[in-house]
Structure formats: structure tokens, C-alpha cells
């Protein structure tokens, strides 16, 4: 039985400047290839994120919630899991989704507004991005339990924000997952704000990881801006779940550098000094410094990755500048497997309207 | 053939479904050893084991949300909400996820899951045990809303609900759990989306569903004594709604009364009345009337008989159907009609 009470300090491998910490954590160090892969995905992910925000300014996206600053969590979660494992993302997780390999245009469908979910969840093992807070954590628990029952060896990971840990569904999910020993990892990205509301107004617990013990769920805190630590802790959490030990809760301390979404004005509730402090803890710079220090990352590779990110963004820009194909009858075709007579009637009515409007 | 109760028919339906399909799992509060507070899951854990029929933590959003995940994982969950009013904690899961997952994913994911809810009153239940909550679900696109009124339908509709590729809110009229009928299972009645004429008649159509169907039939018997030949239509599935059967009946009879236990305002009866007048206007000899519960929170047990629409209120409504062009005196004071 793993220790239920989380350690008081977040697990950390790297200091803010990317040098190894003096006190090495007990976790096995992620290997260099994995770190390089994380670096690449983080750089591409951030470029994607910046591009998406730019697309809101051009009116190509209705809204975009940035995860700038949270890349270690977004990418770490994807790399710590197998591609067959299920992810249950929120609106914040676009970077995780493109890191999983989903077409970025399909990821952005929700925010562009041409569909509620642009990708095929079954193909990628990624649930639709979830907006009603914490509700997806229960789905992750149920699906993980289903996988355990089938003996598939698959696990699930549920993303959730600090604010959403106050929602009842999160607590029910921890409880159900523990009682049914569902192989699910709950990853709380504590970015310190729920839109404008600071963490202190969400919880008086010593940490959000402490919420595990009441449900018998082991937990750990991790420096969410230390990609090495995130990978190490999430890999261990995934192994714990996969081995049949039930759920695991990880709280990653991180920060969203941008506003809640492009439509939010963060200056109303936090200072630039605070943001600047967190910029110093940038996860990409940290990993880059570490890998360079080890001689694992050269100027050439850094330039290569940067060029790859630019290409990725340019291709996305071009594709997003085209209007998406829209099929108005889509409104009716997926409400039920078989449309009801009423839906058929309404569908025919809309088609008639469209013919008349021509 | 010995008569069985509706509760037994439901139990048999679950039993047969568990037997026929390994993907079916039944879970909820007290559904295991106890067999459910209404004994609908009686003996299922014994027969099929704790993996197939099991108790969960006491949390309704949890039960439904967990079922969503299990359905995504290939199972066919049938969950029990202990009582109508105790399904409300799960409302967000039902409305935001259960109802929408197929649509949100444009058909790539489907949720074959059944949410069984004992509902409505008439059993002397204390507060929070007697709500008629069908309108909430019927108003939510993506859900099928089913409510049996006969023992045979209870079996057949539940089997169909479990086999359906889409989520079904299965509303079980509590006061009919102990109603009995000679029924030989397995059997199949009319499919979803088909209302059934329970009693043929010429003078007026009484539309009802769930717990109101026996009231409608009793009213028809009583009305027969007064020379009224009533047709009783049992909706069976509120969603999908059978316009065809209802419309055909009212076009024949020219008069229509809708009965529901739920408060009338913005209820299913209002929807039925609107649809009937849209489709049957030129056949109608009188306004479509509703007989419903009052627009009040469900009353304490000693007062519930005042609230529940009974035979007398249906007969009163019939009286008002006989007038020709005179306005209904109840509404004269309104809108300066007098
Ligand atoms: C049930 C529910 N209530 C309110 C909202 C509106 N809302 C969207 S995001 C958000 C803040 C969530 O904060 P947090 O969980 O910390 O996640 P973050 O946005 O910081 O990633 C709120 C209140 C919602 N989406 N769902
Ligand atoms: Mg937050």
C-alpha cells in the first residue's frame, strides 16, 4: 500500500535554472530520449498555443484558453501514458491533445465553432474536451474500471484544474475510483487561479494532493514546471494504476502565464510581478538548460525544433484560414442513432428553408 | 400462468438481459444484497455475482458519471436512482453528458445506458419521494424517456431500453410496482415510439402515460355509465413521441383530454395539447384540456389525494368538452372576455 499522505514538498528534479537539485528525489530519472521528446513537444505545443491565441484575434477562433506555462503538465501527461491509454481533457488541454498526435485543426474545432468535438475520441483514446468542471473525472473512473474489468491493461488519466477540485464530481470520482480500484490517474494542474479566484478561496487543505487521503487514494505533489519531475511522478502514478493498485492523485504546481482565455483581463486579479516571477520558472527553458548542460541538446537541435514549431504553426495558420465545411443537417443527425419522426420533420424543414434562401 | 407484479416483470427483464448479454451491468444504491428498495433487483447479485449487479458508494452523480465511463468502455450499464427526487444530484451528468455525448462526437461515441428511476406518487411517500420528473428529461434532446403502465410493457420496454444504442431514462411508476397481470416472459410489446390505444372509443381521446393510465381507464369505465365512449391512449414512450397514434385518435374522436400527475405548467401534457391542436385543429370540437397535478411542490401524504388527478377530475374535464362555442366559464374573467 503506497503512502496515502503526500509528501509536504513537491517532487522536483531541476532547479529553476535547470540544474539538478541537491536532494535527488526517490523516483527513477526519466531517460534522455523521453526528455528530448518532451522538449520537442513542449516547444511545438507552445508555438501551437501562441498561434491559437493569434487566431482568436483574427476571428478564426471564438475563444482560446491558453496553457502557456503549463507545458510540462500537458506534455508530461501524454508521454507518461501509452498511446492506448485514455485521456479525459478539459478545455485547457489543447496542447496535450496535439501532443497526443491529434490533428490541430480537429482539436480546434470546438473553439472555432464548427463542431463540439473535431476528432474521433475512439481513434485517439481521448474523450471530448470537457467544459462542465470536474464532470469528466467520473467518466475517467468509469472507463478505467471498464478497462480493468476487460483486462485490457489500459488506464485513464483525468485532467482537472485547481478550482474544479471544489466540485462534488471530483470527490465522487476519487471515491468511486478507490472503491472500485479503477486504474486512473487524476492530474490536478494547480495553476493557482480559477478564472480570477485564487487557490486560497478554493481550499483550506494543506495541498490539493491532500484530498486523496480521505478517499484512500495515494497522492503526490510535483513541481509542475519541472518536466523531469512531472514525467517521473506521472510515470510512477501510471505504473501504480496499471499494476492494479487503483487510482493515484497528482497535484502539479504550475501557473498559467496568459489570461484565463483571450477574453479575460487578468490584470484585474493578479499582478505583473507575480506573472514575472513565474516566467522565471518556465518549464521549457528549464529543460533546455538541463539538456544543454548534459550535452544532450545542441544549438542545431534547438534550431531544428524551433523550425519544426514554426512550420507546424504556419501549416495550422494556413489551414485555419480556410472556412470549415459546414453541414447544417448535422444538427439533427446525431441526436439519436435513429432520428425521431419529429427530428426528421425538423430536418426537412431546415432543408426547405435552405432551398428557399438560395 | 400465475400473475406477476410490475416489479417482478422488471426484475425478470433485468435477469434476462444480464443472462443474454455479458456487457450488461446493474448498479446503484442498495441494489445488491437488498435487491433494491422496491426489490426490482432482487436476487440478481446472487445469480450473476457482484461483478454484474453491485452496490456503489452513495452518490448519484457518481453513479451516472461512472456509468458514462463504463459505457464508453464497452459495457451496457443499467443504473438505479433510488427515488425520483434523488436523481437530481445526477442531473448535470444526465443533461450535459448522457444526453449529449453522441451529438458532441457526431456519432462517434454512443451511450447505451439505462437510468431507472422509480417516480411519481400515490404511495403515501414522505417529502422528496414522489416527484413526477419526466418533463425535465423529456425537455432534454438526446434522451429517450420511457414509462410503462402495464406489466407486459414494463418487461418489454426495459428489455428494449437495455438494447437501445442510446441512453434511456426509464421511469417506473411507483404506485404500479405492485399491479399484477398474467404475463408470459419473455415477450415483446410495441416498440419505442409507438403509443397504444388501451381502450377504443368514439367520443373523446384521453391521453395518458405511466401512473395516469389506470386513472384514464377507470375514468373511461365511469364515463361509459354516463354515455361517453372514451378512447384511452397510453404514450408509453414520451420520447420518442408518437404523434401519429395520438393524432389519428383525436381526428376520429374530435375531443382530447391529457392526464398527468406532474404539475401542469410546462409539463408533458402541455406539449401533448399543443401538438394535438397543431395537428387536429379542424377536427376538434372543443379545446384540448389538461388534467394534472396542481402547480405545487408534491404534498404531504395526507394531502396527496387532493393533488393527484383522479377519475372525478377527468369526468369534470369531459363535461367541459361537451360545450360547443361557449367560452369555458373558468377563463371568462381573464382578458376582458366578459
Ligand atoms: C460546472 C461549471 N461551473 C462553472 C464553469 C465556468 N468556468 C469555466 S473555467 C472556470 C475556472 C476553472 O478553474 P480551474 O479548475 O482552476 O481550471 P483552469 O481554468 O485554471 O485550467 C469556470 C468557473 C464551468 N465551466 N463549469
Ligand atoms: Mg486553475
From TrEMBL, chain A:
Keywords per UniProt: Oxidoreductase, Pyruvate, Thiamine pyrophosphate
One Pfam match, given by its short name, reads: E1_dh
Cofactor(s) named in the record: thiamine diphosphate
Tell me which residues make up the Dehydrogenase E1 component domain.
40-313
Key word Repeat present in the record?
no
Oxidoreductase as UniProt keyword? yes
Q: Which SUPFAM superfamilies match?
A: Thiamin diphosphate-binding fold (THDP-binding) (SSF52518)
- Tell me where on the tree of life, at the top rank, the source sits: Bacteria
List, alphabetically, the NCBIfam families matched: PDH_E1_alph_x
Kindly provide the name given to this protein in its UniProt entry. Pyruvate dehydrogenase E1 component subunit alpha
- Source gene? pdhA_2
UniProtKB/TrEMBL annotation, chain B:
For this UniProt record, give its keywords in alphabetical order, as a comma-separated list: Oxidoreductase, Pyruvate, Thiamine pyrophosphate
Which cofactors are named for this entry?
thiamine diphosphate
Instruction: Look up keyword Oxidoreductase and say if it applies.
Output: yes
Which Gene3D superfamilies does the UniProt entry name for this protein? 3.40.50.920, 3.40.50.970
Note the InterPro entries from the entry. Answer: THDP-binding, Transketo_C/PFOR_II, Transketolase-like_Pyr-bd, Transketolase_C
Domain Transketolase-like pyrimidine-binding span(s) in chain numbering: 4-179
Q: Which domain of life is it from?
A: Bacteria
- Keyword match rRNA-binding: no
Q: What name has this protein been given in UniProt?
A: Pyruvate dehydrogenase E1 component, beta subunit
| Organism annotation | Phytohabitans aurantiacus
